[in-house]
């Protein structure tokens, strides 16, 4: 439900009753990952999606039913060749859904949900019995899943999932379980080189949910006016800026770094530092000739072969890109493929179904 936080926060403020259906798990090929949510208020207004269309109608009716009877429920949607008219996923997979009604007079639940929806960094645990526990990144948990012992176990497990930025099912004592949804600050995309490709990539990164920084040592080029889609534009030597951000703890395992300068005096000291950091992606623009020279310089600087193997260069997937926008698309596609551990190949011809994996580096918020 955290993915539709703005809408649900407004409904809470307005005192609306509603029910929210959230995907707890997917099996095989499914269109939406765990955490995908659809909510319906008492008037029948709907926001969000759990399947991209396959089972939305059935989930809508289940939300209305749960709101009317005041009890949560779980449901599994799959596909059956035996009944062509049954509600299910045409992609052949299945998904599990938790439906939680939120009554207008349920002050306790509404208070917990309001804190979770407003908090920029925390985990929300909900059980099929209707309990809710919000575990902020800092501070004491709020709410309950059913007792001190259960809440202690749930809080510890929720913090572990939160550290990885993951959403998933947490097993509790006595065979109980809870869905834990993590909400973490947006992952960072650091773009080095204030060039036209950087402007297009900043737009693509923002579209994908990244907090985008453009950095260049040349103040005449590194201006906010040239990069309106960037969250910040920094003037400074790239390797100095990167070192300062790493020292301040502002980089993590979801961070993507794109080096677009293809100039050795900027690239080499920057990549020497970047390839030693525990970030998700490091890519560098340049021709294959530039790449060969860059690798020679990096080896001379002391980087090991495993460190060099992390470098994506020439940057991006082979899309035949020529314009800055097309190049940004190819880079963004490679970042997503790397994050999801995907092949980057056309889905046509791939035999194995695409499965949503709970990756720690998925953008969330």
TrEMBL record:
Start and end residues of each XdhC Rossmann domain: 189-335
Protein name listed in UniProt: XdhC family protein
InterPro entries linked: MoCofactor_Util/Proc, XdhC_CoxI, XdhC_Rossmann_dom
UniProt cross-references to Gene3D superfamilies, sorted A to Z: NAD(P)-binding Rossmann-like Domain
Domain XdhC- CoxI as annotated: residue spans: 11-78
Stretches the record annotates as Disordered: 342-365
């Amino acid at each position: 439900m955290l993915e539709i936080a703005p809408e649900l926060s407004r409904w809470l403020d307005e005192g609306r009753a509603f029910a929210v259906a959230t995907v707890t798990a997917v099996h095989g090929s499914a269109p939406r990952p765990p955490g995908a949510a659809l909510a319906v208020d008492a008037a029948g207004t709907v926001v969000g999606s759990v399947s991209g269309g396959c089972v939305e109608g059935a989930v809508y009716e289940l939300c209305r039913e749960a709101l009317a009877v005041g009890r949560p429920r779980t449901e599994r949607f799959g596909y059956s060749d035996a009944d062509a008219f049954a509600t299910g996923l045409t992609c052949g997979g299945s998904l599990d859904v938790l439906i939680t009604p939120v009554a207008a007079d349920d002050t306790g639940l509404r208070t917990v949900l309001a804190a979770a929806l407003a908090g920029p960094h925390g985990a929300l645990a909900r059980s099929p019995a209707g309990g809710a526990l919000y575990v902020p990144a800092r501070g004491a948990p709020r709410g309950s899943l059913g007792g001190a012992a259960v809440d202690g176990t749930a809080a510890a497990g929720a913090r572990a999932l939160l550290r990885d930025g993951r959403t998933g099912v947490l097993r509790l004592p006595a065979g109980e379980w809870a869905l834990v949804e993590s909400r973490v600050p947006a992952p960072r995309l650091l773009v080095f080189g204030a060039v036209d490709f950087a402007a297009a990539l900043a737009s693509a990164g923002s579209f994908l949910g990244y907090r985008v920084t453009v950095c260049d040592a040349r103040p005449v080029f590194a201006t906010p006016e040239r990069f309106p889609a960037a969250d910040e534009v920094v003037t400074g030597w790239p390797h100095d800026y990167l070192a300062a951000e790493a020292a301040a703890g502002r980089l993590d395992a979801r961070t993507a770094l794109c080096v677009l300068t293809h100039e050795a005096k900027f690239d080499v000291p920057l990549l020497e530092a970047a390839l030693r950091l525990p970030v998700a992606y490091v890519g560098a623009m340049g021709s294959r000739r530039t790449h060969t020279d860059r690798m020679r310089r990096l080896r001379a600087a002391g980087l090991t072969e495993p460190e060099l193997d992390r470098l994506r260069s020439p940057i991006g997937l082979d899309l035949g890109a020529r314009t800055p926008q097309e190049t940004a698309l190819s880079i963004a596609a490679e970042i997503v493929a790397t994050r999801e551990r995907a092949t980057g190949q056309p889905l046509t011809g791939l035999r194995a179904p695409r499965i949503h994996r709970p990756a720690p580096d998925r953008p969330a918020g």
